[in-house]
Each structure stands twice: as structure tokens, then as C-alpha cells.
Amino acid sequence: MAKAEINPVEGVKTTFDSLIEKYRVEDPVALKIREMIRDYEFNEENPERIRLKETLGLCFALKGLEKTSKDDTETTTRAIMVMDAFYATLKDFSHPESATRF
């Protein structure tokens, strides 16, 4: 959207990048999620180029929500729950002394 405050730039910047920059996010877990989103969005057409092992699992789960939700509101609500859980798990792994190992 031309007048939107937060816009992606195809092949350069995702919407998540714009949010991270606008709000000056420095949280290492949020920055890791940013890497995964970039990894997927920039390589979606060529999945063999995806470099982070977590990327496909996360993005396939989020894509699946689009297919199994009745509308955008339900998709967003469910995606927030997935991302909260993913964030919590990544945060545990960033502090090995408190992480639950699989």
C-alpha cells in the first residue's frame, strides 16, 4: 500500500524487517525470528536455498493456518499463538541452563 507506514520491499525488506526497524527491536530472539522470516520470504520459490533448519517448519505451520482457518481474523489469532509458542521455545534455547531439550 503506497501510503502505508510499514511496507515490505520485494527481495530487500520484509514487513517484519520494517517492524523491527520502526520499533528498534533489539531482542535476540525476535531478531532470530526475523532471520527465519527473511530466509523463507526471499527463498519461498526455491526451498532448497533455505539455510536455517527452523525456517521451513515454522513457515509451513503458518502457511497451514491460512489453509485451515475460516478467515483472516482466525488465521491471525492462531498465528499469534504459534509465534508466541515459537518465541518461548527459542528463548529457552538461548538460555541453555533453563532449556528443555527434546
Produce a short descriptive summary.
The protein is mainly alpha-helical and 102 residues long.
What does this molecule look like?
This protein is mainly alpha-helical. It has one domain (15-98). It has four helices and no strands. The protein has helices at residues 15-22, 28-43, 53-68, 72-94. Helix 2 (28-43) crosses helix 3. The longest helix is centred in the last third of the chain and has 23 residues, at 72-94. The radius of gyration is 15 Å and the shape is globular. The chain starts with 14 loop residues before the first helix and ends in an 8-residue tail after the last helix. The relative contact order is 0.10.
List the keywords.
single chain, 102 residues, mainly alpha
Task: Please provide the count of β strands.
Answer: 0
Low-pLDDT stretches:
none
End-to-end C-alpha gap = 42 Å
What percent of the residues sit in helical stretches (DSSP H or I)?
55-70%
Helix-strand blueprint:
Elements: H1 15-22, H2 28-43, H3 53-68, H4 72-94
